[in-house]
Amino acid sequence: MTLALDATRLVAALGPASCRFDIEVLPRCDSTNSVVLGRAEAGAPSGTVVVAEEQTAGRGRRGRAWIAAPGDSLTFSLLWRFTPGTLPMGLSLAVGVAVARALEKVGAGDTPQTTSSAPSFCAALKWPNDILLQGKKLGGILIELVPGTPHAAVIGIGLNLRLPAVLPLDVRATATALPGAMDNNTLLAALLTELRSVLSQFAAGGFGALRADWLARHAFQDAPVALLSDFSPPRHGICRGVDSDGALLLEVNGRIERILSGEISLRAAAPV
C-alpha cells in the first residue's frame, strides 16, 4: 500500500536538505499552484512547498483541468526565487529533467533491473512539460511566474499514482500511472532533492546546462510529429530536439523552425 503523505516522514526522508524547504501537507485544496501563488505574493520564502492529498480545481497547460481525487495523484507546488537576471526560458524542461531523475532514483515501484547501476525506472520527456512512461502520460508540469516578481516562479507538478476506475476512453488510452506501490514521502523527498539540484544548475547556466540530459530522455527525438493548435491547422515535420533556450526544433522541408509557444500540443505522426 502507498503510504500517505506525512510532514514528519517527509522531513525524515529529506534529511539535512529539509532545512531548505518550508513544507505544508494539506488534506484538500482547490489548486496547489493557486495556494503557493498567494503565499508568494505575501512574501513567502523560496522553497515554500504545498502538497495536497486532494485537489479540486487544479489546472494544467492551456487551461486544462487537473482534478486529483484522494490517493490518485501526487500533486504539489514549489516556490523558487531566482536571482535577478535569471530568465525563465526552458524552465519547464529543466524541471522535467529533475522529475525524471527522481523517478529513476527511487525506481517508482517498477521491477528492478539486473544491473545494479541501471535505473529500474526510465521516464521519457515530451516538449514542453509532459512526463511519459511507456509512451503514455504519467504526469505534467505547470510553471507560473509570480505577478510583479519576474524572478520568482511557482512550479506545479502532478504525477498519477493510479488511474480512476471511470475515465473517458481517449484519456485512458493516453494516460498511465506509476507502477507498483511506494511511500509517497520517499517519492516527494526525491523530487524536491532533484529540483533543488536542477534549479541551482538552471540558475547558474540556464537550460543549456541541462539540455543534454533532457535530450537523452526525449520521447520524440528525430521522429515525425504533428503540432496541434486551437487556432491553426496541424503542422507536420521531424522533431530535432530543443535548443539551449528550450525551443522545439522542427524540421519542415529541410529547414529548421524554432517553436516557442507553449500553447501547442505535440503528437507522434505517421512517417511521411
Automatic annotation (TrEMBL):
It is an enzyme of class 6 (ligase). Residues 20-203 form the BPL/LPL catalytic domain. CDD domains: BPL (cd16442). InterPro entries: aa-tRNA-synth_II/BPL/LPL (IPR045864), Biotin_CoA_COase_ligase (IPR004408), BPL_C (IPR003142), BPL_LPL_catalytic (IPR004143), Transcriptional_repressor_C (IPR008988). Its EC number is 6.3.4.15. GO terms for molecular function: ATP binding; biotin--[biotin carboxyl-carrier protein] ligase activity. This is biotin--[biotin carboxyl-carrier protein] ligase. PROSITE patterns: BPL_LPL_CATALYTIC (PS51733). It catalyses: biotin + L-lysyl-[protein] + ATP = N(6)-biotinyl-L-lysyl-[protein] + AMP + diphosphate + H(+). Keywords: ATP-binding, Biotin, Ligase, Nucleotide-binding. It comes from the Bacteria. GO terms for cellular component: cytoplasm. It holds the Pfam family BPL_LplA_LipB.
